[in-house]
Amino acid sequence: MDQLNEPGNPRNSLSSMGVLGIKENISVQIPEEVMEMMKPFRPSESNYRNVTKRLELDMNMGLDPAHRDKACVKMFPSYVSKVPSGKEKGQFMALDLGGTNYRILLVTLKGNNAPPEIIESTYAIPEIKMSGPGEALFDFIAETINDFLKSKKIPDKTISLGFTFSFPCNQKGLDVGILTRWTKGFSATNVEGKNVVELLGVALKKLNLKVSCKALVNDTVGTLASCSFEHPDCAIGLIVGTGSNACYIEDLSKVLTVDKTALMKNAKFIIINTEWGAFGENGTLEDIRTKYDRAMDKNSLHPGKQIFEKLISGMYLGEIVRLVLVELIEKKLLFKGNLPDAMRKPYSFLTKYMSDCERDPPHLHYSTEYMLRNELLVNTIDSLDCKIIRYCCEIVARRAAYLAGSAIAVLINKMNRPTVTIGVDGSLFRHHPSFAANMNAIIKQFKNPKCEFRLKLSEDGSGKGAAAIVAAHSF
């Protein structure tokens, strides 16, 4: 296997079966010059296998205090050493902050593996709060918590909260997390290097709210916990949305970077928040990156950071495709060489457009044409234009799915369990029509053949999981 499942390859026959068992529908021969431009997005099997070897090495370094400083993948202990069993009872709050929109939830756990009762509201963070003083950001969040309590008529009593905070944190305990760096467009000042639980607590105290944050969890950890309600063998939590990250259950004996005095008594395992988005910051992914990846990275908010995340997450994939399309237009291979004004703007080609393009039937382009005419205001479109755009979207999305799947295979092999459920959340996984299938295919290719696995969409998201973790650690 040299090139993994190339859509549009003229050597493939109509409806041929790709090397990973994914059915392809080739309706037209894509121009050779376009295929040549996209070649760097089609790594070989050996390239992907090398990625898994480097990632495993980096993960092992992250677990070892003697080498952790040199590791890009920091493998932060989450201090979660008990996953929900479904027997937990009580009423808890959750704050799920991972992007410009965040959720506040009231979660009532009924025990006996009964589905939890969830009341929630979604709030949007103004851009000025994302980039202004950190104190103002947390004051704003506390005000919305106050609004939630009042609007839902929640009794004025002390309530424990689980805080899903989807940014890299070095945790010192279940309720102590030091923000190492902002990602996903946030840059609020005077927060990096601080305990975000304490910052939230100060903001809540200003409003005299009887809400106490008992656990800080990454969204991957919350996703794992949420999925474990129905699937006790869930041992990996994965996010593939605006950003990307994963966590997994590790034997405590293999983790040398944890303060065991901050764990529950008789703990035998701990969930590790890998923070794999930083993988490649030391240059180990240069054989995978293209000139378009580098151009996108150079103009991003944090150049040179979160290299792996920038190859696979929804915040960046659309921009990578836009850069490709702009060059195709400049070479007169698309739109007869006419660059629409809308496409001159960075991030104007949204990642959701990639899903729309692939969702179209192979011979029809309803969504693609609508997007081009109404969103990007392209005046002249022909059928070949639509096919080329779909081809480029497929190639970029497929590489992202293969990279994410390769990394999941590393975790599966690392745990060496007979069965593993992977709880997954995130808009890219939820909405892209082929992402899950492509991930599934390469995991099968790279995992230990003795292990059975399944990808399971984590219902109700990481907020429910955060509340359940508070409950699990209360007993």
TrEMBL record:
Enzyme class: transferase
Keywords for this protein: ATP-binding, Glycolysis, Kinase, Nucleotide-binding, Transferase
Listed GO biological process terms: glucose metabolic process; glycolytic process; intracellular glucose homeostasis
Membrane-spanning segments: none
Organism superkingdom: Eukaryota
Keyword Transferase attached: yes
Keyword ATP-binding part of the UniProt annotation: yes
GO cellular component labels: cytosol; mitochondrion
Protein name from the UniProt record: Phosphotransferase
Species whose genome carries this gene: Schmidtea mediterranea (Freshwater planarian flatworm)
